[in-house]
Design brief:
By secondary structure, this protein is mainly α. It contains five helices and no strands.
């Protein structure tokens, strides 16, 4: 694809205006990924060792972390003008352990390049 100076100047302001929302998304995606790993450990303790106490404490904390991820992801999606399909995919990525790390890298790459999801 041939790019012109005009194309580059239009993409650059979009990338700089998304710097804050993208940084918040990256932090939230990382926290969600760590939170999902923690939730898996807690579920193993609960069902494998018949100890529901850690689950009773950690599960609500994980829920709050995921809700923050949802809000931050939707904020970035609206500002970056993602498609509904792409937005739903990013939101669901926060439900699968380790997937939020991969999606965070792909989202960061696309937003930095000025491409839509």
């Amino acid at each position: 694809m041939v790019t012109t100076d005009r194309d580059e100047t239009q993409a650059a302001p979009a990338a700089t205006s998304l710097r804050g929302p993208l940084q918040r998304f990256r932090i939230a995606a990382f926290a969600t990924g760590i939170g999902l790993i923690g939730l898996c450990v807690v579920m193993i303790v609960r069902y494998g060792f018949d100890n529901p106490d850690p689950s009773a404490i950690y599960s609500p904390i994980h829920g709050v972390i995921y809700m923050i991820y949802l809000v931050v992801a939707v904020d970035l999606a609206l500002k970056a003008r993602w498609s509904v399909k792409g937005t739903v995919g990013v939101l669901l990525a926060g439900c699968v352990p380790l997937l939020s790390f991969y999606v965070e890298r792909k989202v960061t790459q696309r937003v930095t390049e000025g491409r839509k999801l």
